[in-house]
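Q: A reviewer asked whether we had any structural model of the full assembly, not just the individual parts. We don't, so I'm hoping you can provide one. Inputs are below.
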Amino acid sequence: MRKSLGNLSWVCAVAMTAWSSQAVAQNAKELHIMDSGGEYADSLDKCVNAPLLKSDGIKVIQETPGGYAKMAAQAKSGVITNTVTDGPTGDMYRQAAEGLLEPIDWAKLNPEPMFEEAKNPNGFGASYYSTIMAWRSDAKPPQNFVDFFDTEKFPGKRALPDYPEFVLAFAAMGDGMTPEEVSKGLDLDRAFKTLERVKNDVIWWQSGAQPAQLLKDNEVQYAIAWSGRVLGQEGVSSTYNQGMLDISWWTVAKGITDDQRDMLYKWLRLQTNAEVQKCLLDFLPYPGPSPELEKIVTPEVLKTFPTSAENKKVQWLMPGQWWYDNAKEVEKRWNDFKLLQ
Amino acid sequence: MTEETRDQKDAMTPATLALEAASGRPQAPARRQGRVRWDLVLLIAPLLILVVAIFDVPLLNTLYWSTVDDAGNPTTEHFREFAESSAYMRIIWRTLVIALEVTAITAVAGYALAYWITKLGRRLRMVMLGLVVTTFWVSILVRTYAWIVILGNAGLVNRTLMDLGLISKPVQFLYNELGILIGMVNVLLPFLVLPLYAAMVRLDERLLQVAETLGASRLRIFWQVFFPLTVPTLAASCILIFILSLGFYITPAVLGGGKVPLVANMMDLLINRFARWEIAAVVSVVLMAVTLSLYAIYQWIRERSA
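A: Here is a predicted structure for the entire assembly that you could use as a starting point for your response.
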């Protein structure tokens, strides 16, 4: 009995060694990234990661979700495994200010043609998305965010993002601030005044797919959601009117090795290709930054872009700098509001 | 864009916990005197090292984080911040209250269920126990979402009630405290039913027969003989359930509609969103202290009454 136990442990030891050396061998060609997951992860796998594995033998490993806190934790631990994360503009400013980011060497990256505003020194503009209002098609349609937050004239429950940067500006508009005003920065008092007023009629969502589902299940009648998640959903209406346009950025972790950077830049460069961006659109309607993209999609698809001329003019841009400047204050007030409700 | 639903953070502690509670007080193993069984020590060592390295050391690390600043110097700053905001203590309090409510509901429902199962015929008994055990096999995430299908506004229950004309608009089961209670009780019920059932069937039936011969009514037999004999197991299971409820994450996140934050959800916010590990560490330390004190009080009462 004891002998067989000994033999077994030998087998285990040998297997472990073999397994770990194999893992090391694979590491050489593995690129670790963080992103928001779900359908977005699926789209990257099909349109970017699979072709890259074929052409360059680089295997991309995704971890979800990413974001500021994960980058901060990784920097604190000193082991940089994940080379890049996605996130909104405010997140990029915050990471940059805290020294978590490596500036992008645009000359080295050498992208295919892309919009200038998507080439930030600290971030690679991956796609345009918008945060907009949506409602059940059988509910009374709101015209603007004053209507949206008027629970008397527009009775029903609201599904709101459980993220301050995606809800506070709209709440401030619910108290009468104009899109022009909030695109420069918002009055937090007015924002929280609105939220205090409606909080009993709110279901907070964390995952992008939730609002559409809550609307369909008739759990809520109105929602603030990311454009790609509600457009084209049956029984759900939405408008870009007063929507918040933003770019989703890839931000690169400071401290990555040269090998990691080489792989990462290959991966990013592939994403500047218009055909690749068209492929990503099959999963989620968030257009990439290639000027060529509009020319190769059908007019119906173009109409859904948050960036199409018609949609762009009724929206406003998220003030990333303001969110960075006020991060501490927002965090404290949001925390108190959410935890004390 | 936090997209993916969370991991199963409050996935079940193994069923063994429940079984352990079932056996009541652990019996000291018969042991040969004066000899250390080195082979046994060797066999246990890997597990011991694993527990120390993976559980105990990080726990101490948490304590360390709560007491040092960025440069690694000792500080009470984090505890002061914790004390100055009313939010943290209030959420810990709320979590304790909900854990208590869950424990009470589970105890009443579970006791009745276990008692009823012991009264069934052999075959039906196996079926019922099987049904209780099956819930262990289904992922907690799936079970939590299943409640939306059953109890949502367009769910089975509400639609049936409305079709029958009993209600005119849907009953709000979910996205409030009620939703959390339903979800948590569902997950925790087996942890109470299995040990209680085991204790009930092991009970010496002759005691009940004696009471009956002496002319006690059925109600009296139950309250004066049967129930007291099951109290130790009931109490042990309740403590287990109470402690498990303190760490629930998915159920409040999904069935509470983000409106009833509990400790685990606050931790998620602090760690994954705000990167405030120090404060999260303070919250853990305080929660741990509160839990251990409660456990100490429980032990003290038990020893005094024994």
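A: Points you may want to mention in the reply: The interface with chain B takes residues 2, 36-41, 64-65, 67-70, 72-73, 76, 86-88, 162-163, 199, 202-209, 217-219, 226, 248, 331, 335-336, 338-341 of chain A (CB under 8 Å). Residues 129-246+314-340 of chain A form a domain with the D-Maltodextrin-Binding Protein; domain 2 fold (CATH 3.40.190.10).
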